[in-house]
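A reminder before we start the practical. When you read a complex entry, don't treat the lines as separate problems. The point of joint prediction is that each chain is placed relative to the others, so the output describes one connected object in space. Small molecules and nucleic acid strands, if listed, are placed in the same frame. In the example below there are two entries. Take a minute to note the order of the lines before looking further.
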Amino acid sequence: AQSVTQLDSQVPVFEEAPVELRCNYSSSVSVYLFWYVQYPNQGLQLLLKYLSGSTLVKGINGFEAEFNKSQTSFHLRKPSVHISDTAEYFCAVSGPYPNQGGKLIFGQGTELSVKP
Amino acid sequence: DGGITQSPKYLFRKEGQNVTLSCEQNLNHDAMYWYRQDPGQGLRLIYYSQIVNDFQKGDIAEGYSVSREKKESFPLTVTSAQKNPTAFYLCASKTSGGSYEQYFGPGTRLTVT
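Here is the predicted structure of the whole assembly.
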């Protein structure tokens, strides 16, 4: 079975500071990995995804993530955050098997709060 | 514009009543999903459908029912058997094939009193 753990439930940070949101996953098979962002009372928007290839993945809004297979991690980073990055961030994993229906397993979420 | 619509945005019901949440997509996606979101618990899968007239239970299907009569539509009924129905409900869809990301609607916040 697959699982996802987001290691921080809340991350406060000052504007223009760097940030890292941590995500570890558990799986006995190869996986696809995703980061989504959710603004208050809205749906989820895809930030970036890792399917294969380069382990450093760049996404929208200046975010990037690094897939580390040996540490089963997929941490999200941004070198300089803005007030507008305040939101909840979800890490998700999907297995490669078609008969799993493309299901996503989500972490519990990390609330990023950017302060002026 | 292509996308997923969920209606209504806010829904209020009395305990003991069934309620149906709408989800429509015009992305021509084959698969559709319903998730429930509660504070601090992430998203949990209720039901999903990979093709028309077929659907499977997710992790928390008890007290919910769905139908998939058209490719574009995947309504979710929250029945009176669902013990704690107040939550934020999100619908998503994805294309079949190699792209594994799901696209999400704006959500419906259901409050049952």
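Discuss with your neighbour: Chain B has a mean pLDDT of 93. What might explain this?
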